[in-house]
Design a protein that fits this description.
The protein is α/β, with parallel strands linked by helices and 336 residues long. Helices cover 36% and strands 19% of the residues.
């Protein structure tokens, strides 16, 4: 992780819109972008970061740099409920902020598991995916750490495709973009063309959806449909959940789609040549960094993305149905 990733930063990306870059110590990405939209007296946050004392202090520090306090936050809008984007929601609610999230995310089974059940289901997924036994303890510790930093409550109000939220002169249109999570959302500020994409679209990587503990459905197919929705609106600038803002949404969508379709062909080819688990497929996929140089959490993430590809390819009949993650793998029975 570069040293700069551990320094909290703030910059104004448009009039009254600030990107607050919060460090995520120990996370493979290193930081998360949250966005503060301010009026004369109040602030709306899009996403909010981990629920740690350090992250809370960093948030307070960056708000002070723009002349605000945490008590000025009127509303927190979540692009999705992963811990690095939603973990602080409960703390901010106690300070008076209302929290809005898509019901598909808050209804996700994983979102409500206690620690014991989460570990139980994670072990089942590791076994199905073919994660080597010697790495499962480390992988589980990391997953449980992320889970513990999350927010597992109901929002004050639910977002859907038709939700439009007004904050001063800002008008935020909700766009449902399932894929990265079961019902991720993006927000389009209609007067400026600013598009807040969470983890659905980045300017510097082709990060995609994944299938792991108690996830379900066909997120890769959902994702490929969702990113096309982002090209319909008039977008002037894209503000992602990680890394830098960018402008050409159409070229990024096209590149992302092409990347995942190429990756799907590779996955199908490896299955045809005898690879039979998500892990064994993931470790054979050509990439810029060798498999051995990836951290265990990064290898788990790559395996989970392969799992999402297998679900889509099985639905299309391009790989055997028994390789689909939810047909032969994750037993929903509770922990003993």
């Amino acid at each position: 992780m570069p040293a700069s990733a551990e320094i909290p930063r703030v910059d104004e990306v448009a009039a009254g819109v600030h990107r607050l870059s919060l460090p995520l110590r120990g996370h493979s990405i290193g930081h998360v972008n949250i966005y503060a939209l301010e009026t004369a007296s109040e602030v709306v946050l899009i996403d909010c970061g981990w629920s740690t004392l350090q992250t809370r202090r960093h948030l307070a520090l960056l708000l002070r740099r723009i002349g605000r306090r945490t008590n000025d936050i009127r509303m927190v809008l979540l692009t999705h409920c992963h811990s690095d984007h939603a973990g602080m929601a409960g703390w901010l609610r106690k300070k008076g902020a209302a929290v809005g999230a898509h019901r598909g995310d808050t209804a996700n089974a994983e979102h409500h598991l206690d620690a014991r059940e989460f570990v139980h289901q994670t072990a089942r997924w590791h076994a199905w995916a073919g994660v080597p036994e010697g790495l499962r303890a480390e992988a589980t510790r990391y997953a449980l750490h992320q889970h513990d930093l999350g927010w597992r409550d109901r929002p004050d109000f639910e977002l859907n495709e038709s939700s439009v939220l007004t904050h001063g002169t800002f008008r935020l249109q909700t766009i449902a973009v399932p894929g990265h999570t079961s019902d991720s959302v993006a927000f389009l500020e209609t007067s400026t063309g600013l598009l807040f994409t969470g983890d659905t679209l980045f300017g510097q990587s082709n990060f995609g959806p994944s299938l792991r503990t108690l996830h379900h459905g066909d997120p890769m197919s959902d994702y490929l449909v969702s990113i096309e929705k982002l090209t319909v609106a008039h977008v002037t600038r894209v503000l992602p959940g990680h890394n830098s803002p960018f402008t050409d949404v159409r070229s990024r969508v096209a590149a992302n789609r092409a990347h995942h379709l190429r990756r799907a062909d590779i996955v199908a080819g490896l299955v045809a040549h005898g690879s039979s688990t998500a892990w064994s497929i993931a470790e054979r996929i050509p990439r810029r960094r060798s498999w051995s140089r990836l951290s265990v959490p990064q290898r788990i993430a790559a395996t989970a993305e392969v799992s999402a590809h297998l679900a889509r390819l099985a639905s299309l009949g391009h790989v055997p149905a028994e390789l689909a993650p939810m047909t032969n793998a994750i037993d929903p029975s509770p922990a003993p």
